[in-house]
From TrEMBL:
It is a multi-pass membrane protein. This is SLC13 family permease. It is found in: Membrane. Residues 220-305, 315-402 form the RCK C-terminal domain. It comes from the Bacteria. The chain crosses the membrane at residues 6-25, 32-52, 72-91, 130-146, 158-182, 194-213, 421-451, 463-482, 494-518, 524-542, 549-567, 587-607. The keyword Repeat applies. It comes from Kangiella marina. It holds the Pfam family CitMHS. The keyword Membrane applies.
Amino acid sequence: MPFPDLPNGHALFVLLLTVFALYLFRRDDIPLETSCVVVLLVLTMGFTFAPFHNFNGHLEPMQFFSGFGHEALVAVCALMVAGQGLVRTGALEPIGRFLARIWKTAPLFSLLLTLLIAGILSAFVNNTPIVVLLLPILISVAVRSNRSPSGLLLPMGFATIVGGMATTIGTSTNLLVVSVAADLGLERFGMFDFMLPAAIAGAIAVVYLWLVAPKLTPERQALMKNTSPRIFTAQLHINEDSFADGKPLAEVIGKTDGMMKVTRIHRGSDASIMPMPDAIIRAGDKLRVTDSPDRLKEYEQVLGARLYKSGQEVNDDHPLTAENQQLSELVVTPGSPLAGRSLKDVSFMNQYGLVAIALHRADRVVDMHNKGLGKVTLHVGDVLLVQGGQSEIAEFKKRGDILVLDATTDLPRSHRAPRALIIMGLVILFAAVGLLPIAVSALGGALLMILTHCITWRDAMNALSAPVVLIVAASLALGIGMTATGAAEYLAQAFVSVLHGAPPAVLLSGLMLLLAILTNVVSNNAAAVIGTPIAVSVATQLNLPPEPFVIAVLFGANMSFATPMAYKTNLLVMNAGGYKFSDFVKVGVPLVILMWISLSIILPLLYGF
């Protein structure tokens, strides 16, 4: 079959712009949002100054902005907001606690279970919160077992990507491919239409991630020892057989190596005693203490006391919860009461009702010399990470003597977790049975999350990602240009010409491999939107059903394993585990090849090629 002649000028313009766009999307020094706006502007201006006409009529430049109202983008944004409801309410945290418990007894089995749970959850929920949930658990496991977390984090991150391939809502890439294919005249895919090949290939991938991948990753030093540095206020009930009974407070604190912070001593029903060093602790007293969960449990064990929160004894089934708590960043400014002083000097916790968790200093790492954060002299420009109630944070902002950054983060509202799970379940159910389109179902779920107070409108706005919105809109615009001008048909003809005479199964496999390579170099959403019209054109020219070729594009565009920039969760894992670029190549490339070979066999068998 001869190689096709060059396409018309407009198609050539779109192809060159697509190459330029992929180059811009690849650049780390140019914000992705900027690159997307440049592509949209050049595309619309080009077709404004040089109008395009064909047998279908005139291509209006304003059509390139239709991606902002496209159902795929609506569904992606709504699912991000609904997923934020699961994060803000801590709805997934019971799974985390369950995994944390079983890791103590059966590490190898626990890794397999972690991979399976990560993959299954990612088929229905955005994988970013799942990765955020599992990172601290796996890092904690590695620290307790005195091993490097590098053999755990990368397999877990890849498992969430593999799981996301299984349903139409698993990733934004899936939603885009399904929506663009429907725009091109194909029958809309159901939520589980390609779950079977995804499950078979995913099972093979999980075995690789379980048994092989941990052995391929060299030991790396984790950059973050604790990704969830939350502080809680609780009460230690002093029993008659407790070490603290009859001892002065100074001696009790000394028993904890001076680490325990006692803010109040409650005695009887109403009496409250200031925590002076010479105050004698008696059986029946309740010490109000503030610290991390691990430290609080350690104090309980060391002192022989019992730990309570809101009248409920703290244990695995009733862990510590932080209601209406926020994390916020404070900047020490010139003239601030903190400048040149330590937190201890200003009695920071007592005066402001906030607990300092961490300190960032731009020019160097702060050396605390084992004296603790409270004794470090603060400099102008230092950034403190603090935790406190919403009212305390709001009051702190009103004072105006210390700058509060806008990066305030609310901590989970666990009592609203059940309603968030029910809402997300209804979103999935209505879309799965075809009662509502996924865009409508997800949008309804997002609104219910707000109406039931699982999240606020501020949470909803924070959940939306400008880069995701713009990359989807820009990719859809390029897809419109490629389809309308015949550029997609030209690429399809070129692809068929290069593989002329090859069986359909080889063409399908080649297309999937092309997308797998492309997605590890540029945005997976861009690769998916560009690849879908090409897949339909290839199938049309071969007089074959287009569905398997579209699914090949979907799977290929999801094989974001070989580079850290291929997928946002790869970057999260890279930072947490201290991985290098070469680690992703070493573990990810074999996984890409394994998935490609598996699906190249499975898809032709399922579709009778």
